């Protein structure tokens, strides 16, 4: 590994990177819903050259891969031999991006450079206190207590359906939680639902660029949203207080533990909605529960009870609804007393190997969904829901 690091430092792609010295950035949060312009991309390339510190090999490989994808498209070079470690690491990183569109790669490159810059600016600054007031969330209630940051979805009258504001606020809250003093982070819902998934009225707000632009922006937002779960550095726990639908279910495959009330159900009616799996579930679900059980959920829309979801490995443990909150929070408070650095490092050891792959899967799922959103099947399903002809 030391050999690889030294080699990377010596032989890095000069057009996009220099040998620099900067702390590794683990969390990449982009709230931008626009694609990068050519100028933004060029600026980002210049900024990389000005970084004062080494971002670490993981980030450098990511920058290299995104640069190649943005400028040359998918990797079609022959795979280097196993002993050419540096070329192979670079090839692997590039190849892992699969068919990620050039424009998306460009935007990711710009976002990554910007996160490196902001991390540089904030280094040495005092971290926000865990109990400091959250920045005015409208769709969430975020609290920090007993070593636990709790992010509660708070649109109970809409069954905690996720609108664009909620997606953005969850990303912000995760970013803040990744840096605060808490040891673990919990996502839960208020009211009787965990979440009814994507807010289907999102489809009605069409920008001046038309449905194509809507789908494009939606795919970017979704990619960024799921990316935050992939990169989240601390133990992330779901406290599933009621039924969960769609993206609220798929993202559970990216959590470190999932505790559910016996009243919860787990439903991904993608085919019914003319849509396709997201949240990396096309990869995580077959691995968690076997390919055929994943098919029943993701393709046929089979709704699982909490006990079924637990038997299939999606849920860690189920509790009776009457004692759910008390039992779960007692347990979480005990877990939150464990040494936070050990927990964080153990999570890295468990998850880091898969991260790049998950980002590539996320990008692919988003680009498939972008097309699906423009299909008659999807449009009809949304119209049916909005005209109250169809419910799950
Ligand atoms: C950046 C974009 C990313 C997109 C990612 C892709 C994500 C995919 C998915 O998440 S697919 C899943 C989408 N969700 C659904 O299809 C659920 C639709 N909702 C329902 O079928 C039902 O509402 C229910 C079964 C969840 C609950 O039924 P019921 O108990 O009878 O309650 P109501 O239907 O009366 O609901 C109360 C109130 O909430 C509104 N609501 C519920 N869910 C949604 C939703 N997903 N989107 C928008 N609105 C929702 C419902 O309309 C009612 O509102 P009202 O009181 O009529 O104003």
Automatic annotation (TrEMBL):
Keywords: Acetylation, Isomerase, Mitochondrion, Peroxisome, Phosphoprotein, Transit peptide. Its main location: mitochondrion. It is an enzyme of class 5 (isomerase). Residues 37-122 form the ACB domain. SUPFAM superfamilies: Acyl-CoA binding protein, ClpP/crotonase. It holds the Pfam family ACBP. The gene is ECI2. It is found in: Mitochondrion; Peroxisome matrix. Its EC number is 5.3.3.8. This is Enoyl-CoA delta isomerase 2. In the C-terminal section; belongs to the enoyl-CoA hydratase/isomerase family. Residues 117-138 are annotated as: Disordered. Able to isomerize both 3-cis and 3-trans double bonds into the 2-trans form in a range of enoyl-CoA species. Has a preference for 3-trans substrates. One of its GO terms (molecular function) is fatty-acyl-CoA binding. It catalyses: a (3E)-enoyl-CoA = a 4-saturated (2E)-enoyl-CoA; (3E)-tetradecenoyl-CoA = (2E)-tetradecenoyl-CoA; (3E)-nonenoyl-CoA = (2E)-nonenoyl-CoA; (3E)-octenoyl-CoA = (2E)-octenoyl-CoA. PANTHER family: ENOYL-COA DELTA ISOMERASE 2, PTHR43684. Pathway: Lipid metabolism; fatty acid beta-oxidation. One of its GO terms (cellular component) is mitochondrion.
């Amino acid at each position: 590994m030391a050999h690889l690091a030294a080699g990377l430092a010596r032989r890095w792609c000069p057009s996009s990177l220099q040998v620099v010295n900067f702390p590794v950035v683990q969390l990449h949060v982009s709230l931008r819903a626009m694609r990068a312009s050519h100028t933004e991309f060029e600026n980002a390339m210049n900024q990389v050259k000005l970084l004062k510190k080494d971002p670490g090999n993981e980030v450098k490989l990511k920058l290299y891969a995104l640069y190649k994808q943005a400028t040359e498209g998918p990797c079609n070079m022959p795979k280097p031999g196993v002993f050419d470690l540096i070329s192979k690491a670079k090839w692997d990183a590039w190849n892992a991006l699969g068919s990620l569109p050039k424009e998306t790669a460009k935007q990711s490159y710009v976002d990554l450079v910007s996160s490196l810059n902001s991390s540089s600016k904030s280094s040495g600054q005092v971290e926000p206190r865990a109990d400091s007031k959250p920045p005015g969330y409208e769709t969430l209630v975020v609290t920090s207590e007993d070593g636990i940051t709790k992010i509660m979805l708070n649109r109970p009258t809409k069954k905690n359906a996720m609108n664009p504001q909620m997606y953005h606020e969850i990303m912000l809250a995760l970013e803040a939680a990744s840096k605060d003093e808490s040891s673990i982070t919990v996502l839960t819902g208020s009211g009787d639902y965990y979440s009814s998934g994507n807010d289907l009225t999102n489809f009605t707000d069409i920008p001046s660029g038309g449905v194509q632009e809507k789908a494009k922006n939606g795919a970017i937002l979704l990619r960024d949203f799921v990316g935050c779960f992939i990169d989240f550095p601390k133990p992330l726990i779901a406290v599933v207080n009621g039924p969960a639908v769609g993206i609220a279910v798929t993202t559970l495959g990216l959590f470190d533990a999932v505790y559910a009330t016996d009243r919860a159900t787990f439903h991904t009616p993608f085919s019914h909605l003319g849509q396709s799996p997201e949240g990396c579930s096309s990869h995580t679900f077959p691995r968690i529960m076997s390919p055929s059980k994943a098919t029943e959920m993701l393709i046929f829309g089979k709704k699982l009870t909490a006990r079924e979801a637990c038997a299939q490995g999606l849920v860690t443990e189920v509790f009776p609804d009457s004692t759910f909150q008390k039992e779960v929070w007692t347990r979480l408070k005990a877990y939150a007393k464990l040494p936070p650095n050990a927990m964080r490092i153990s999570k890295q050891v468990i998850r880091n190997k898969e991260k790049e792959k998950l980002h590539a899967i996320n990008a692919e799922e988003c680009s498939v969904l972008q097309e699906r959103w423009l299909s008659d099947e999807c449009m009809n399903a949304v119209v049916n829901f909005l005209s109250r002809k169809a419910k799950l």
